[in-house]
Amino acid sequence: MRGYFAVGAEGLSKRMNLGNLMRSAHAFGANFFFTVDAGNELRRAPASDTSKSPGHLPLFSWDSVDAMDLPRGCQVVGIELTDDAIDLPSFGHPLQAAYVLGPERGSLSKAMLARCDHVVKIPTKFCINVAMAGAIVLYDRHRALGRYADRPVGAGAPTETPQQHVSGGPIMRRGRIVPGQGK
To answer: 62: domain CATH number?
Structure first.
């Protein structure tokens, strides 16, 4: 899968949810994890993060939305139940993304929603657990941007295998190969 992504949460209050979300981020290959406006007790991995993700991906803790320091080009994708949010099954995931989920019993702050490039909702009848919502979004990203065979029209396994990625040749500029471009 190309690109990179991060997973984070704003205003979380439950350590178990944080640990479960961190474990899902690690399992799906996130490049870093972050919290925004979290209490001191939520600035480190809790016991529910059985994969011990901070040993495998950086954990950033920002005090506010204004303090968030994301890489250039990284698009913020808020996961929130708003009327104008994009339904997750119809959403095109950016290659460089930071997915941010809101707190339990609450919503993303107005400041965070203003920072978002996209707001996405999971089409459920009611709000679900923040850790579960994160896992669903990460699975959807993995499914959408990974190299998998198309789903069959009927039930069962795919009938065709996915095409293998083919790298292009070297990129030439003024008669010389540009380092790190092409293979």
So the answer is: 3.40.1280.10
